[in-house]
Design brief:
heterotrimer, A mainly alpha (about 120), B alpha/beta (about 230), C mainly alpha (about 280), A: about 120 residues, mainly alpha, Arc Repressor Mutant, subunit A, 2 domains, two-stranded antiparallel ribbon, 5 helices, C: about 280 residues, three-stranded antiparallel β-sheet, 9 helices, 3 strands, globular
């Protein structure tokens, strides 16, 4: 796997895991892959995965049980918050692109509605 | 974390050309260090000084608290940049030699690695392709529970499938109670497995540091940084 | 301690056994042709065939000598290869001191030299009996029975001949190692042979000089120390140095010098292997 942005790899892995949680690949309360397995899957240093898990734990998205492994939090509000935050990020970056194309903030909802209706 | 390798003021000359100029470098236990640089930058010279194949003109090397010698050779598991197994050997002979000479050799692990690399024990080393020799040598090196693994260009000149197998084997065999030093000029393929990187050019350290910190600080991946430094 | 002996043996086995078989084959041929020649001469003097047989004998003789020289060159090159070829990347990365590596190479070379010599001599003695119907063993046995102090003489001759071989081999190893350390080029590296010849000549000269200046000999048949006069009476050359003479006598200072030489060449070479050799 190649990581292309200028972000540190552990941050990029944090994002990968967050999106796996939000899209339901990893469910609430589910055990995350072991550090070694994920290291092998993503072909990165196990220390990097360790750091990603620590960062996720710091953000209360996962928790570690001694000798058992790392699990996705069961606190629904955190997961909802995570989903909201990701949506917010996507929307903000989308809006930035649209503004670059010349649309104003007010015009953006209109064009979304128009295109969404066309699709039906 | 304790340093398993400490290098101070290391200089090596071949005749009059200086291959390494006054190098200082520490390697911590539990870390994977990438020595990056183009061909002829002094990577292999540095490795061979660590493994005791070369002797420095000046400076000091301490490995596990000792100068290079019989003790350090017993704690280093070394993959040279070429096949050095004797031409008369079969895979079985090579395994036997590792078992005889290295107390930390794990037979069970060697069986697993040979199977993983799809290598037959009765094959003669001299009849193998370059990729197979590379995989056999790596299997032998990783079958030891050494304190330090030193891999010189482990994926140079092998096909993409073997390259992936080799990378997987390195990652799977990483252990907290050991350190790895890996040289490469194929930075894009390997950068994700390094904790620390050292850019070596013309025998001098151009830049070194924690790989993630460098990505954050320079806002680019190590591969791009490499191109910027040596491009 | 000498774990490396096993791998040196395995590596040299094929070639050395081949050389021994070749030498035995050539010996068989020589004896058969000699017998045939002897038969022909008995019947009707020189025949046309005898020229061819003489030529074949010469060829077989060369093969016999060639196999011996080949074995020697091979054993020496087995040391040289460690310093010049890729295999050194494995050998010098092993947790093995220079002394252990050198000792292993020396032991295996001495082993093959002894085995090859004994096998060829014993095979030829047996062959003489089988082909010519002449029993050399009876002759040898009757000579042996007359010797006093056989044990000492036998042990003495084994030890001195091994020492002589060890000195030669160690000088070769020393010369190869010095060349490797001082001259980086592989081609000029063959200068070791010149260095070896010079060293060997100087050492022989010194050894003879020592023996001449200090005429003290050990007579193995009596285990007594004898001086110049007795040695002269026994027909010992005053130039005679270290190893056993035909009369069963060794020069004590010569012997000590040889021991010193073995120890010195061994440790000097081992030191260079540990501290000076760069595997490039």
């Amino acid at each position: 796997m190649n990581f292309d942005s200028g972000l540190p790899i552990y941050m990029q892995i944090v994002e990968i895991i967050k999106s796996r949680i939000v899209t339901g690949i990893l469910e609430s309360g589910e055990k995350l892959p072991s550090v070694r397995d994920l290291a092998t899957e993503l072909k990165v240093n196990p220390n990097t995965i360790q750091r990603s898990y620590a960062e996720l734990e710091r953000q209360n998205i996962v928790f570690t049980q001694r000798g058992m492994g790392t699990f996705v939090t069961e606190d629904i509000s955190i997961l909802e918050g995570l989903k909201d935050a990701m949506a917010r990020e996507k929307v903000l970056s989308f809006m930035e692109d649209m503004e670059r194309l010349g649309y104003t903030k007010d015009e953006i909802p209109d064009i979304i509605r128009k295109i969404a209706l066309e699709g039906k | 974390m304790e340093n398993i390798v400490e290098i101070r003021g290391l200089t090596k000359r071949y005749n009059r050309t200086e291959a390494l100029k006054n190098i200082d470098l520490d390697v911590e236990m539990g870390k994977v260090v990438g020595i990056l640089g183009p061909n002829g930058s002094g990577k292999t010279t540095l490795i061979k000084l660590l493994t005791g194949l070369l002797h420095p003109n000046s400076g000091e090397i301490k490995i596990d608290g000792h100068s290079p010698g019989v003790h350090t050779k017993s704690v280093i598991s070394y993959l040279p940049d070429r096949n050095a197994l004797y031409s008369w050997m079969t895979v079985k002979d090579a395994l036997g030699m590792y078992k005889d000479f290295y107390e930390d050799f794990d037979e069970k692990k060697s069986e697993d690695l040979l199977q993983f690399m799809k290598l037959d024990k009765d094959m003669k080393v001299s009849n193998m392709s370059k990729g197979m020799k590379e995989k056999l040598n790596l299997a032998l090196v990783l079958s030891r529970k050494a304190k330090i693994y030193i891999l010189d260009e482990p994926i140079a000149g092998v096909d993409p499938v073997a390259r992936d197998q080799i990378l997987d084997a390195i990652i799977e065999n990483y252990a907290e109670d050991s350190a790895m030093i890996i040289t490469t000029h194929l930075v894009r393929d390997m950068e994700n497995i390094f904790d620390k990187v050292v850019f070596l050019g013309d025998g001098e350290i151009m830049l070194s540091g924690d790989a993630e910190d460098l990505r954050e600080e320079k806002n680019m991946q190590i591969d791009e940084l490499y191109k910027e430094i040596f491009g | 301690m000498f774990k490396y002996v096993k791998y040196e043996m395995k590596g040299t086995m094929k070639f050395l056994i081949g050389a021994i078989i070749l030498a035995l084959g050539a010996s068989t041929g020589i004896q058969l042709f000699i017998k045939r020649e002897a038969g022909n001469t008995l019947v009707g003097g020189m025949t046309v065939e005898s020229d061819i047989i003489a030529f074949l004998l010469l060829v077989l003789g060369f093969i016999l000598i060639g196999s011996l020289i080949g074995a020697m060159v091979y054993l020496i090159s087995s040391y040289r290869k460690e310093l010049y070829e890729d295999r050194g990347y494995l050998t010098f990365a092993l947790p093995l001191s220079g002394g252990q590596l050198l000792g292993s190479k020396l032991l295996v070379a001495l082993f093959w030299g002894t085995v090859m010599g004994l096998v060829i001599v014993i095979y030829n003695l047996i062959l003489v009996q089988v082909i010519m119907g002449y029993n050399f063993f009876d002759d040898i046995w009757s000579i042996i029975k007359q010797i006093d102090n056989l044990g000492f003489l036998l042990t003495g001759s084994i030890i001195t001949s091994l020492m002589e071989s060890a000195v030669t081999l160690l000088l070769v190893y020393f010369a190869i190692t010095v060349s490797r350390v001082s001259i980086k080029s592989r081609k000029i590296g063959s200068l070791w042979f010149l260095l070896f010849i010079i060293l060997a000549s100087v050492i022989t000269y010194i050894q003879e000089l020592i023996a001449k200046l200090m005429p003290m000999y050990l007579d193995l048949s009596t285990m007594g120390i004898i001086g110049q006069r007795e040695a002269y009476i026994m027909g010992i050359d005053s130039q005679f140095g270290g190893t056993l003479s035909i009369q069963g006598v060794v020069s004590i200072p010569g012997l000590l010098f040889q021991i010193l030489l073995i120890v010195g060449a061994f440790f000097a070479t081992a030191y260079m292997l540990d501290k000076k050799i760069d595997i490039v």
